[in-house]
Structures are given as C-alpha cells and as structure tokens.
Amino acid sequence: MIELKQVTKRYRSKKALDEVSVTLTPGKIYGLVGENGSGKSTMLKLIAGIIYPTQGEVVVDGKRVDRRVSSIVSYLSELDEYYPFFNVEQTIAFYHSQFSDFDLEKANEMLTFMKLDRKAKVKELSKGNRGRLKIVLSLSRNAPIIIMDEPLSGLDPMVRNSIVKGLISFIDIDKQLVLITTHEIQDIEIILDEVIAIKDGKIIGRKVVEDLREQENVGIVDWLTSIYE
Ligand SMILES: Nc1ncnc2c1ncn2[C@@H]1O[C@H](COP(=O)(O)OP(=O)(O)OP(=O)(O)O)[C@@H](O)[C@H]1O
Q1: How far is the CA of 119 from the centre of ligand 1 (A)?
Q2: Whole-model pTM?
Q3: Is 80 exceeded by the pLDDT of residue 67?
Q4: DSSP state at residue 76
Q5: What is the pLDDT of residue 126?
Q6: Measuring CA to CA, how many Å separate 99 from each of 30, 40, 93, 104, 168?
Q7: ABC transporter domain location, by residue (predicted)?
Q8: Does ligand 1 have an atom closer than 6 angstroms to the CB of 54?
Q9: Which of 12, 37, 71, 99 is buried deepest, with most CB atoms within 10 A?
Q10: 181: confidence class by pLDDT, cuts 50, 70, 90
Q11: Cα distances (angstroms) measured from residue 183 to each of 13, 58, 101, 174, 179
Q12: Does the complex come out with an ipTM higher than 0.90?
C-alpha cells in the first residue's frame, strides 16, 4: 500500500506537489497522468525514497519513507541508469546480483518477448530497445510495488501496443501494486484499473477506468479533457 499524507514538495521556490493526499492499494494498476511539469515524476521519486517531502509524509507498506526503499519498490526512472559498457545479458546479471527478488527466469522470458539481443551493448541499443530493457529490468523483480516513469516514451507507436500487452502478462496483479506515469494514455488505457489526474502539483481527479467506460461511456482522454478545461 502507498499513502501520501498531505505531502508538499518544494524545489527551492517551486512547489512541485501541493498538499497531496492519496492512498493506493495492492492488486491494481494505476495511471498517473498530467501535463509536463505537473508533478508526476516528483510523486514517484517520493514513493521510491529518492527525495523527501518538504511537509507531510509518504508511507509505503506501513513504513514512513525516510530513505531509498529499493527493497520493496521497483522504480523505473525516466533516465537511463545503467552501465553503457555492459551488454544486455551482463546488465540482467548485474540486477540479479543487486536485488534478491530478481526473477532470472522471468527476465529471460521478457527478453525473448521483447526480442532483445542478449549480446548487444547497452550503449549501442536504439532508444526504443533501451526502453524495452528498462521495462524488463523493472518487471523482473517480484517487488510488491512497481513504479514506472514514462515506460513507453521513445517507443515506436507500432510496438507500444505489443509492449503494453506484454506488461500485463508480466505483472503479478494479485500481489503487485503498479503505478505508471504516461503521456501515451490511449495506449495504456486497456491495462489500467484507475486513473489519477494531476495538475500544478494537485490531484484534480481520480476514476475507476471501468466506471468511466460503463457508467459515463467515455474513455480516459475524454474525461481528462473535461476536467482540464
Ligand atoms: N530538481 C529540481 N529542481 C527544481 N525544480 C524541479 C526539480 N525537479 C522538478 N522540478 C520542477 O517541479 C515541477 C514538477 O516536475 P516533475 O518532474 O515532477 O513533473 P512531471 O509531471 O513529471 O513532468 P514531465 O511530464 O515533463 O516529466 C516542474 O515545474 C519542474 O520544473
């Protein structure tokens, strides 16, 4: 479970999150959406314990986050954070050595699914293939919480669909809580349980995706357009 309690985060004079309170429960895939600079990455970094709130508290699985919580949170950052001279196989082996919950068998299945060349040097991979490798690394962990910052950015529109289908088959939805930020809302809509909209550091709406479809007969983009106006 993830709880943000009245969380404000300031970077010098800039308020990136403004008294945000939200509770996310296991067994669901959440989408966090909002314009550039609305505070999405800040929220993910607070949950991962990479940065800390200016006010309020972040609680993950019952514990106040006061340091990096990499043992329970698998965090896929927006940035490329691996050793460029390693090849794909060596990168997988490195992650396996770092995280006790890293599932080598799952990683190998995902590499095959993503059609990644195990011998290719990371620095020589295309942006799209680096994106695929990042997804493999983060989903290969049997961590209770998976947070992914823009997992589809840089991926070709033609392959996004198959990657999204892959995401769902490699997430253990009975046990894991997944939080994804994305601008590619339409591509990811199919796998989301709930969507949370953020604007200027405040949560301005939250919906169960099935309710939007069944009760309001609209998709996420229609709903976002209506609340952002
Ligand atoms: N390290 C930092 N120092 C100063 N300001 C920052 C820092 N990181 C983020 N900000 C500012 O905080 C606000 C929220 O940034 P954040 O990266 O959380 O937004 P975002 O919703 O993830 O944006 P994007 O969709 O562009 O990735 C922005 O105005 C950004 O410029």
Answers
A1: 35
A2: 0.92
A3: no
A4: E
A5: 86
A6: 24, 26, 10, 11, 22
A7: 2-225
A8: no
A9: 99
A10: very high
A11: 26, 25, 29, 26, 14
A12: yes
Rounded distance, CA 121 to CA 15, Å? 40
Locate the DSSP E strands across 77-221: 145-149, 177-181, 194-199, 202-208
DSSP single-letter state for residue 102? B
CA 50 to chain CA mean position, Å: 14
CB atoms within 10 A of CB 181: 26
- Angle formed by the axes of helices 104-113 and 157-170, to 10°? 150
Q: Which amino acid is residue 212, in one-letter code?
A: L
pLDDT at 80 over 70: no
Spell out the residues 6+ positions from residue 211 whose beta carbon is closer than 8 angstroms to its own.
none
The residue whose CA is least distant from atom 11 of ligand 1 is 16
Distance CA 32, CA 148 (A): 10
Nearest-angstrom CA–CA distance, 84 and 72:
26
In 10 A of CB 73, how many CB atoms? 24
Cα separation, 127 vs 122, in Å, equals 10
Span from the CA of 167 to the centroid of ligand 1 (angstroms): 26
